[in-house]
Write a structure and sequence with these properties.
The complex is a heterodimer of chains A (153) and B (395). With 153 residues, chain A is of the alpha+beta class. Chain A has six helices and three strands. In chain A, strand 1 and strand 2 form a beta hairpin. In chain A, helix 4 packs across helix 5. The radius of gyration of chain A is 15 Å and the shape is globular. In chain A, 44% of the residues are buried. Chain B has two domains: 241 residues, Aspartate Aminotransferase, domain 2, CATH 3.40.640; 131 residues, Aspartate Aminotransferase, domain 1 (Alpha-Beta Complex). Helix content of chain B is 41%, strand content 13%. Chain B is built from 13 helices and twelve strands. Chain B is globular. Classes of the chains: A alpha+beta (153), B alpha/beta (395).
Chain lengths: 153, 395
């Protein structure tokens, strides 16, 4: 389908690191079912090196939501936790060879899911972190971007 | 296997329609407004096409206006009825919450022009009752516009009863029959329909052609100004290949309506019954008052677009919600209007059949759907929560 790039279709059809993780060190969940997408990301952290030794995801959503989750797990696996935090939605979009404009919020969700998982890990282990990890759910605009896209369609 | 099951979005042009269209591009290329023989030959074809639509709708040829499609016909019908109402100081319109956007957005425009619009909420079965219409009628009601059959859930509305009510109350009645025309019997006299919209590409005609039937005496307001084509009510040189293809397709559909419907209903019911076996699924729309080719269900815990992509990968063309809104993630206004929660509405699937579909294709869809639903559910955190009691099943 020409709607999506080959990379998006590849990650949608063959999602990497999909599944649950029972012994996760950090779990992050973003989005809501009402808006049509939820991403849940699980990370396992190697305590000595502070690197992400394993990552899994579960996603409810459209093709691009599944693809962005999948590629985000690949982009942070084996990386130091601090580096995973630098994953931007832009990098996710680029790695997927682009996304339709009205699907860009999926890449934002992927970035937020990684951050939420790391935050959960930090919280559980008493590791201090800065304001950039303080989630601002009150002012989340993920759903607004859906509605904007809808009114243009 | 390739299965086209998105006939409510559009249909393949039939050989009958194509055969009627091609000569209009080659030999009979004249402009029907021209005085010479080449033009008059085209004018004869135009008259014949008009007569075809009139015949199968039980209307008069002069009551048929060709448009660019169903949307234009809907626009013109509502704007015209509004203008007539306004002259009498009547500025209230009754419609439903699950109309096509061609109607809903035109009604929004009318609201900006000072009209009041009542949108009737459909009951869960998706069939508006004549009592609902009756209760909404006010002394200043100038128009009732209610679709013949819903484009997403396929439910057929009690058009004849609503028509009789509107006649009794002396209120104009328009119906968007885009999904019904060529599939259900329509008699504008018996059903007391004042205005009706048709789109040719929903019954194996070409895209870009529509029909507005308007009862004699109803003054139409132009949507497109210019030349005197269509008795001055719709300017622009007629789309002759399209109009001739539309007429041929309509005649074909009406002549074979009962046999086509019987075939489609048997496939539809097999598909509905089979898909409803998937746990935590629900059929949308009444089972009996339903278009012969419409199948629509919601599956809990998964999202429609990913279902469509996986079906497409298997060669099956389907849709989720209306094709017009597929660029949006907002769930279908139709499913929300019949009370489906947002979460459930996101997981909708519409399969719309035509007489070209076969039982083998239905068996194929029934074979691949459970694995697609299971695959997406296994990936879904929502399904995980539903299965572990952290979220309540809604269907």
């Amino acid at each position: 389908m020409a709607l999506y790039s080959d990379q998006v279709m590849d990650h949608f059809q063959h999602p990497r690191n999909v599944g649950k993780m029972d012994d996760a060190d950090g779990i992050g969940e973003v989005g809501n079912a009402r808006c049509g997408d939820i991403m849940r990301m699980y990370i396992k952290v190697d305590k000595d090196s502070q690197t992400i030794s394993d990552v899994k995801f579960n996603t409810f959503g459209c093709g691009s939501a599944i693809a962005t989750s999948s590629i985000a797990t690949e982009m942070i696996k084996g990386k130091p936790v601090t580096e995973a935090l630098k994953l931007s939605n832009k990098a996710v979009v680029e790695a997927l060879g682009g996304l339709p404009a009205y699907k860009l919020h999926c890449s934002v969700l992927a970035e937020e899911a990684v951050k939420a998982a790391v935050k959960d890990y930090y919280d559980k282990n008493g590791i201090a972190y800065g304001d950039e990890l303080k989630m601002d759910c009150e002012h989340c605009t993920a759903c607004d971007s859906h509605q904007d896209a809808g009114s243009k369609a | 296997m390739q299965v086209y099951a998105d006939n409510a979005a559009t249909t393949a042009v039939s050989k009958t329609a194509l055969d009627a269209m091609l000569p209009m591009l080659t030999d009979c290329y004249g402009n029907p407004s021209s005085l010479h023989t080449v033009g008059q030959k085209a004018a004869e074809k135009l008259s014949a096409a008009r007569e075809t639509f009139a015949k199968y709708l039980n209307a008069q040829p002069a009551e048929i206006t060709f448009t660019s499609g169903g949307s234009e016909a809907d626009n013109q019908a509502i704007v015209s009825a509004g203008a007539i109402g306004e002259q009498k100081g009547k500025k209230h319109i009754i419609s439903t919450a699950f109309e096509h956007h061609a109607v809903l957005h035109t009604l929004k425009k009318m609201e900006k022009r000072g009209f009041e619009v009542t949108l009737l909420p459909p009951p869960e079965n998706g069939v508006i009752t004549v009592e609902q219409v009756k209760e909404a009628i006010r002394p200043d009601t100038c128009l009732v516009t209610i679709m013949f059959a819903n484009n997403e859930i396929g439910t057929i509305q009690p058009i004849a009863e609503i028509g009789a009510l509107c006649k009794e109350k002396n209120i104009l009645f328009h119906t968007d029959a885009v999904q019904a025309a060529g599939h259900l019997h329509i008699d504008v006299q018996a059903m007391h329909i004042d205005m009706l919209s048709i789109s040719a590409h929903k019954f194996h005609g070409p895209k870009g052609v529509g029909v507005l039937y308007a009862r004699k005496g109803i003054f139409l307001t132009n949507v497109i100004e210019g030349g005197s084509q269509e008795r001055g009510k719709r300017a622009g040189t007629e789309n002759m290949p399209g109009i001739c293809g539309a007429a041929a397709a309509f005649a074909d559909a009406c002549e074979h309506m009962d046999e086509n419907a019987a075939h489609m209903i048997s496939l539809r019911d097999k598909l509905l019954t089979g898909l409803a076996q998937i746990p935590h699924s629900i059929i949308n729309g009444d089972l009996k008052q339903r278009l012969p080719g419409n199948v629509n269900l919601c599956f809990e815990g998964i999202e429609g677009e990913s279902m469509l992509l996986l079906l497409d990968e298997k060669g099956i063309a389907a849709s989720s919600g209306s094709a017009c809104t597929s660029g949006s993630l907002e769930p279908s206004h139709v499913l929300l209007s019949i009370g489906r929660p947002h979460e459930v509405a996101h997981g909708s699937l519409r399969l719309s059949l035509s007489e070209y579909n076969t039982e083998k294709e239905i068996d194929y869809i029934l074979a691949v759907m459970p694995e697609i639903v299971n695959y997406l559910r296994e990936m879904s955190p929502v399904w995980d929560e539903l299965e572990h009691g952290q979220r309540k099943h809604q269907i």
